[in-house]
Design goal:
- The chain has helices spanning 2-6, 22-25, 28-34, 52-66; strands at residues 12-16, 37-42, 71-74, 80-81, 88-89, 92-93, 96-97.
- By secondary structure, the chain is α/β, with parallel strands linked by helices.
- The protein has one domain.
- The strands form 3 sheets. The protein has a 3-stranded parallel beta sheet, with no helix packed on it.
- α4 (52-66) links the parallel β2 and β3 (71-74).
- The N and C termini lie far apart (43 Å).
């Protein structure tokens, strides 16, 4: 938060969650309590159901999303993310990979 304040950031439009380990999404509820967030982008369901720490973080993330205060995008290969001012195309999500651009 100190870095966000110093940079003049007062809200976060998009949070990209690459996977559900604690070092990637474990602080999402705490972050959302401190600064407005518009949309979370992730790959869908947690696939690591046998790893207790990951399950715990996943459940906290699910609870955060269940508040319905945030939009959620479940990214799929070839999706174009709605980030204004840039083109961001998903090439891999939830183990699926899109074919190379340009037909190769």
């Amino acid at each position: 938060m100190a870095a966000a304040r110093k940079a003049g950031v007062s809200k976060i439009d998009f949070v990209l969650v690459t996977h559900f380990h604690s070092d990637h999404v474990g602080g999402a509820p705490q972050l959302a309590a401190r600064i407005p967030i518009g949309t979370f982008i992730d790959h869908g369901e947690n696939r690591e159901s046998n790893d207790a720490p990951t399950v715990q973080v996943w459940q906290a993330y699910e609870q955060l999303l269940a508040t319905q205060k945030y939009k959620r995008i479940t990214a799929k290969p070839r999706d174009t993310l709605p980030i204004q001012g840039m083109e961001a195309t998903v090439i891999s999500s939830d183990g699926a990979v899109s074919a190379a651009r340009g037909g190769k």
